[in-house]
Amino acid sequence: MKLLFSIVTSAAVLVSGSAFADSSDTKVALVPGGPHPYFAAWERAGQDAVKDFGLGKADYKVPAEWDLSQQNELIESLVGKGYNAVLVFPGDAVGTNKILGELDDAGIPTAALAGCVEQPTKAKMCFGTDTGHSAYLGTKQLIDAMGGKGKIAHFTGFLVDPNTTLRIKAVEKAVAEAGGGVEIIQVIADIDAYEPADEKINAFMAAQGGEVDGIVTTAWVPAVVAAQALTNMGDKRIKMVGIDHDEVVLTAIKDGFVHGTMLQNPYGQGYIGSYAMDKIRGGCTFKADAPWKATAQTDQFIDSGTVFVDSSDVDTYVDAMRGISLEILKTFEDDFLDC
Amino acid sequence: MAALFKKDWFGLLIVVIVSGLAIAVLKPAFLSPFNLYVLMVSISYMLIIALAQMIIIAIGQMNLSVGAIGGLVAISFSGLMEVQQVSVPVAVLIGLIIGMLCGFLNGYITVRSGISAFIITLATLYIFKGINLGITEAEPFYNIPETVKNFGNAKIGNTPIPFLIIIPIIITFLMWIFMNRTETGRHMLAYGNSVQSAELIGISSSKVVITAHVISGFLAAIAGMLVVCRLQLGTPNIGDSWLLPSFAAPVIGGAILAGGKVDVIATSLGVLIVAIISQALVIFKIDPFFVQIFLGVMILLAVFVNRYREYKQEARRKIFSSE
Asked: Rounded to two decimals, what is the model's pTM?
């Protein structure tokens, strides 16, 4: 199977051009770990990258479900169809390295987007949100909105996701810096499905809604459900800072039930990721002394940026995301690439 | 009292009462109207999901596609209303038909192929989920009509009772009648107990299996639509987390996975126990890294209490029969 895959990938590279190809030969596959609205912006990002950088293709292809083997099969079939650069949200931080290694052996550059793979890896970079930093900044915003004192709850995602621990620690750090006026009264995790999130967040509201002053959410589903719960309760006393750009959260910000949200930059990940893959195919290499950040998984991490949006700029949040992307793009080649 | 003690669900009722009282004493907020409302809301759709699995367990099979059917109906229901501007009653009707068709497909393929329903529903799980994702491309439907949203959040008068629980209560009652008082319900239990014996006395295997799967699909469809009412959006993830809870409640309620023995009331109490435990873990602020341990231990305790009652009952029966 591996031999067949290598033959197919090598043939794909030969057909699509040499290692130093024109941009029009670059065909990027943007492959998330599975279906999730967070990644939807990758589609537009790919289209814009084709238009702005003259790429041959930059297509968003979604595995049918969150399953590493399905993701690997999809990548193999895309390479068989002629895609010669792959941007992937790792289905598994370790397991995804195998296929990335095979692609690299076949001359196909890859990068991890929105989430990293563990080193050692053949991925050229990890380009995603500094999740800990985002949680830290979001909590800081919440503490400011609460007037620097009060009790907060933290709702977050899968415990098996290494980012969850980073987020929990980041929230604790921001609270510790508040000088004793702020206390975390509860952390509720593992609520990345809507039904358990609805049950647990509303149970929390019922039991402790009266004593909590602020809520910070650091995962998509808890943010949606908590925003919905506050809206249903009609509660504007409890301040909440969410994450991401689900319509429910954005509407709750406009209606005054949610203070704001920490936007990640999926658009920029797809747009700049496609640009970077084209540059690598064109003969550029990543600088060893580039201003990489280090995470628990890799020391070749690039922060795709995060921005706080509240009621004053919620209507123009797309511009905010584009603004971050253009800012990163402006210095990307000079900072990270040797061309 | 002696008659009550013999009921399958009696031990579970004791667990519910004792645990409810214990939590209320330690945390009075447990009995607050808002908390009771939240508890009833979470029970409402979980009850129907558990019954959708229970009826398949009754015939000695498993339905792995319960959540996928619920999810497909949920996005069809919300998509029809948002994109096609279909009225709510028509969307509900189409949702129910989709659920029953999915169930029929499960039952029909199982009967015609002779392959285990476990395998068939594993395959259809992917098919139904695939259709769901093909329709939505992982994007939720947000524009749910106000009437649907209101139904999902309204209470009956000034009570903490959600409107949402009315349908599950009616369905539970109808399911109890179906399983205990109708010929088809009894045929299902007989079939689950022994396929050969059931066929020898003239019970139609295909009728029993297909009917059970159609009812299961129908119930999953209702649960999917109730979740849309509650969440006020139709997201493709609805149903993804249903599989384990759908088995947990019937099994806590004493159902035998090999078939032939299920109890609607005990299953309902199983749902209530899981919901109370989940709430207790939040109310007592259990460390998130230890929540699953507590949940597992509490479910085991509930099952042991019920099994202990059965053991005592069996021992007493042996004493009487030896006399």
From this structure: 0.84
